Fold each of these.
Amino acid sequence: MPDFSLADFVTYVRTHLTGDEKGESADFLDHLFRALGHDGIKEAGATRETRLAKKGGAKGKNFADLMWPERVLIEMKSRGRKLERHYDQLFDPVEKIALADLPARAEALAFLLQRAIDLPQPSSRGSA
């Protein structure tokens, strides 16, 4: 496993990232997973840009910035954004996630600013 601590992660983000959602989310998330003791996102079993059907059967796809089955759904926003305005982006995809993969938490991240939401868990988890 990489030798990269949470303190190293915070220093890296503050020193090297400006907080741009589109341009830096992948780098932020990869370094976060390394700081959590994983070799990377994929090695931990998570995926970036997970395709999910749009709400109400609309054409096209939505994308979850990061989906770590049974653990967390992450939606990234640029630094300085009001995360409360984007909660719908956390809840809309939940109904499209397979019951066995439904994470316990959803996180809205604006780089080092974060809001966590515990998702309601069905009693039949894992039996689908």
Amino acid sequence: MPLDDRARLIASPVVAHSEHSRDTRTPASRGVRTLVLGGARSGKSAHAESLFATLPDSVNVRYLATARRRPEDTDWEDRIDGHRRRRPIHWTVVETAHRGGLVEELTRTDWSATLVDDLGTWLTDVIDRANAWDRPRGTVAADIDALVDRVHTYPHDLVLVTPEVGLAVVPESRSGRLFRDEIGALNARLAHECDRVVLIVAGLPLVLKDSPSPTEGRS
């Protein structure tokens, strides 16, 4: 079953249609880009994985894990192990924090399907590397622009997992407010780029955007 058909079966029937994202390429030249948002422990990762989990073993799925390992933090390592146990064993896992980074990995297009989990840990790492928590806002704008551009041009099926943190109270610390504002702005830009946007609440998916797939509507 095609990815877009599976997404409709998995997702909630409540749909808010939106305009197509900007893309000047021909419809047949790209896959479906899906953004999955949710709060902590909402089930967003499990939902994102389910979009690719039933693909046949012959489909080469790449899982881009953005979290940096912390051997001294057993709770953090247990969370990572839980993700690992849930993934199909034939998926190829790349830990982007220990490679060239997420943006560089997204320049590699020899995969039929790619899942990124998640953009919150990616953004945290980007801010850490730039020592930008106390620097002027916009310090990591170039990194964010590069990621959005890669998503815009990515030619195959792509699922992005990202936290939704803007519904809680205003953080007391400047670093907390910086992260909330940066991830919120990034999510809005990626929602514009993606064909489908799904918000996960208490394990239930709410479809916010469901544009026609590149092949729908063609004779």
Amino acid sequence: MSPRRGGGRPPGAAGRPGRFAAWRSPSSIDSRIGLWGATSSGKTTMLAALHTAMTQQDGGDDDWILFSANEATRAFLARARAQIARREFPVPSPHEARELSLSLLRPDSAGWARRLVRRGTRRRARRAEFHITLMDVSGRMYAPATFDDQDADDRKQAGDLFRDEPEAGDAVELLVDHLARADGMVYLFDPLRELETQDSYQYLESMVERVLARAEELGRLPDGKLPHYLAVCINKIDDRRVFNAAYDGGFLSVSDSDEMLPEITREDAADLFRHLCSREMMGGAAGSGPWVRGSIERHFHPGRVRYFASSSIGFYVGSGGTFRIQDFANIEADDLGRPRIRGRLNPVNVLEPFLWLAESIRAAPTAPALESRRGGPASTGEGDGQPGHAGADVDDPLAGDDAGLGGVPGPQPRSDEADWDDSPFQTRIDEMPPPPPPPPPPPWQPR
């Protein structure tokens, strides 16, 4: 199937200017976001690419600003950006849990350009603001470890990997608690690792079991499913093996950018994930892919899961200024055979998962952590880094006649937002645009 120009993207698809224009009232929300992925899945590079993704917005009124909220985060991002400037991949995180604090700010153009004074009262500019607390850790902390006893079964225990490193064991517990209390998660699915080692499910399930147990202690499993919003990122689509799988499956579109870069819409990203997790994956055995998909569907509400096809370094664009399907790899080897970044970064769907989480959590906050059943303090939304939940319906946070898939309501209309019906998240089926006309011949030459 050939790529299609424009992609027929419905309202609210990632990449369209103004996709979060529904934010109209002053807003400042704090939230915890978990960044989840196996070793070498690209977590550190993704965080480093966030700043580049910000600078490559289209310059409209709906652009976002990203800045570090503390010195530790500034130092981490500064080091990562310096490595990228040298065309080096950021060094993976050590065996420690490093908490990062970021702020996303989008000025509201209606109040930014002017301030009205009425009856001696100055009207403040309206804006949308979102504070994110992330925990950056080594991918090894998500790894299962087989028991030393050769007669043991296939049960895994994530903490055993660090049994000889007490400080790392403490970091694992911090990570589990952070994920259990989080409002949203970004899960990086690495198709290349799955193709080579077929252990994605082991990395995912070993940590899910711990997070489920901790979430139960915090009273966050009223219906047996995790309340988190989950952004699933199919990472490394710039790699030719992943790109070819998307191309051959008909999941690629041509963006409206001047470089004519390929893109995968969020609807196609969900189909691509199912394809990669099917019984046949990129010409090889499916490995643990079907189990990964089953684990996500089993432990998360389907109405709170969205899929993105992402790449932290993006596709290579040469001197011609346009994407060439014959030469798009943005990784090359140095003199010692080590991988390095070939050209400038063109991040793909690096910022969008965080913005979707921000909008979703603001519109329908997740259930807060209650009193821990093992006697420890629990998150209440006040004074423990988990604000934004005050006033949430603790008794039945998932109740409602208009519940979406899995009994979980999606973003609901707000009484103080008259233009909420314009939100891309509220488009009804009968309001969807008609199917696009047949696509013109693809602008790319055959592979």
Amino acid sequence: MEHILQQEPGMAEADLWERLRSDRENREAREQLVERHLSLVKAELGRLSAQIPSHIDRQELYAEGVVGLLAAISHYDPLQGVEFTSYARRRIWGAMLDRLRSLGGVPRSSRQAARRIAQALQRFNNRENRQPDEAELAAEVGVPIEALHELERQASLVQCLSLDCDNTGPDQETPGSLAEQIEDRDRNAAQPLDRLIAQELRAHLVDGLKALPDRERAVLVLYYHQNLMLKEIAAAMQVSESRVSQLHSRALLRLKAFIEKAERQRVPTNEELDPSAP
């Protein structure tokens, strides 16, 4: 087998996946798949590096990213119709974030800043039934606009988890992201009620994106859909990288507040109120 693979360095990826699917212990096929997709680890590390403290060891994060890639290759099933690149990026990103948490990459001050802004967004939205602009948000927080920018810079260390950001509260340790909630509901949606709730969460996410100011929505689209780095977005928008980081952080806090409000206002179904009802 090793001889055959060495003679076919240009073997189609579909053939490699078929060999691995037929023989999960096929080390040669696995190694070729890893080699072909190591660039995904570098790309995800590049996206993360711009938002984490300089003292964090990038080599450790890269190593964890490789572990995530290996896990993705082990669990991926091409017959499910999901593109491997998208599947692997999620596993790689998650592995690096787990390592970042263990390294203490998000200081308490950053969590406090994120909570302060999130609470201000929630208060304003509940009172005015709309999202505040920058000046209104600064007034709600009770600081000048320049100080708001500094708070957003600190909060960006929390928001670097994007929709992977901790949804259990700034002072809790157990991760529970909005994205993970939606994915968990999708995976466990054996019952019609579970499927309905998962669909509603996705609908809230789409509505929340539509409600964002244009520049903030553009940052999220470029970062998460186009997979651009912050410096690339800054160049495209002709602003500083720190400004993009501020917009990114604020957009995610707005989005989280929007989804949480929509969930609170959702009318529970009869089945949710009484699961034993026929």
